[in-house]
């Protein structure tokens, strides 16, 4: 078993950044989002909603017509045009490689080749080797198995389940990325870095769309701390991934209060959760 550092609420509070009087929407972070599809448009809505509620300054969304329309209906402040970003969130709700059309492929490659940090989920995991900047991937167990299938360190689903921490560390080294392996306990590993585990959630987080919300939280944190990622690389990405998992878990607890929740409930609980953590730090 891999020895891991337990990520705490104090660790999360240390990472969170409140805007100051000299900040504007650009200095607070601009996140590019290429998620969702005609088949799964809700993934785009959930990720964007989570990003803006975590505190990013601006979101640029690039996607097909159906998710673009739903994103703007939910969040009219979103910009649906290309431009400079400090990080990308890509892949949630997008088709696998064999099913991607030309436009989807172009969106994935635009994100990967931008030279900024990338949060890669589901439908973009096959393209991490094309990235020009540091990447953090957010697979669940089956996605990790598929991502490693053609690598130098393949793992079976049973092997991942039996030792998720070691699986995350092995994947990080094999793929050259930071890994956030989703589960009841979230395991974070980076190439040569200290393994981290997050246990701040609730079983009620096991609901459709919860992972899309987590992607938006992480994208917002990475965009808001892009200069830190530029300076420290995967060491910074690992701490931001742990912080995203912790914030997602705490927001889930707040939203649940012991009962069932849906994904938008988690996103709605993010501002109050952030405020409470910032107040405790002060």
Verbal overview:
The structure is a single chain. The model has no long low-confidence stretch (mean pLDDT 96). The longest helix is centred in the last third of the chain and has 23 residues, at 234-256. A hairpin with a 6-residue loop joins strand 8 (186-189) and strand 9 (196-198). The protein has helices spanning 9-15, 42-54, 65-74, 102-112, 141-148, 157-162, 164-175, 210-224, 226-232, 234-256, 263-268, 270-281; strands spanning 5-6, 30-34, 58-61, 87-90, 118-120, 135-137, 178-181, 186-189, 196-198. The chain has 282 residues and is of the alpha/beta class. Helix 1 packs across helix 10 (234-256), helix 2 (42-54) runs parallel beside helix 3 and helix 9 (226-232) packs across helix 10. The chain has a single domain (5-281), classed as Ribokinase (UDP-N-acetylmuramoyl-L-alanine:D-glutamate ligase), CATH 3.40.1190. Helices cover 46% and strands 11% of the residues. It starts with a strand and ends with a helix. The protein is globular, with a radius of gyration of 17 Å. A nine-stranded mixed beta sheet has the order 1-9-8-7-6-5-4-2-3, sandwiched between helices. It has twelve helices and nine strands.
